[in-house]
Write the structure tokens for this entry.
Amino acid sequence: MTEVVLHDPTTPPEPRAGIESALVSLLNDKRDLPVLKMQLFTFIVMMCSVVMVFVHFTWWTALIHIVLFIALMGPHTITLHLMSHRRYFKQKYAWLEYPLLHALGIAFGHTPRSYFSHHIGMHHVEGGLEPDASCTHRFQRDSVVDFSKYLGRFLVFGILDLRRYLKSKKMDKLQRQLVTGDRIWLLVVAVLAIVNWKATLVVCVFTMLYTRSIMMAGNWGQHSMVDAEAPDNVYRNTITCVNAFYNSYCYNDGYHISHHMQPTMHWTEHPKSFLKNQATYAREGAIVLSGIDFFGVWFFLMCKRYKKLASHYVSLDGVERTEGQIIELLKQRTRPIPLAKAS
């Protein structure tokens, strides 16, 4: 067994007296203080940027806004992810989720409640398998053409597919929230377009298209390497990415296997859980990559750069494998899986 050394965050610093102690009093878990601080920073920066774009629209102010949006989208979206799985604020402060998630979320391309409805109502219910509309199994997962089909379907029919799924599962509350959220987004866009249509295109429409596209690329990377012999085995239908900057910036989101195993596990606990269960990961044939994130995986798959991916492969069981053997394993895991077998 190879001893894997991890550098991903596990223990946030203790809150200091003053404003940090006050912020901790809002939270159910003090370990979420770094998340809240980042979210407050993001809220201030992005709301100021939105005002700047609407009050003084030029292509320079639009460019500044887009750069800020891209730089801060990751932490915001993963905060949305964390809040979807765990009660973040104490009950009496739960109202804070509305400005921090939904008002700010529109600036980050999230229509209200769409992420929650998709991720909690469908993706985790199905475990990434069919009939999850974002399931990757039927596609050749190192193909630009297949990814384009996957993304195109999601952008055009994603909300309709989700509504049909929720209706079929009788998740009426989630379906109502999804529809209401979309109507609120359309109303906001219509009102803002009257104020400044160019700014609205940048702040609302571009961000929505970009966010949905990049999230599909991320999901593709997460579920790109699937064992056709056991597509319902959580160790073999997703991957884990360790020791990447992404984990420090986005709260250990690279630990996707353990997240699917225990969706409510706190983000600080994933590295320890991985080390504790490394023997199981090895026995089950899990793919673990070091020093790369899901978007890097997606990019190298689109370029078919398997040698680059193989250089990040972690041998959990200590068995020496040649580069060719690793590449063959990765290629096997990206082949399409017939629908009947994947279900």
In short: The chain has a mean pLDDT of 95. DSSP finds 16 helices and two strands in the chain. The beta strands are 239-242, 287-290. The radius of gyration is 21 Å.
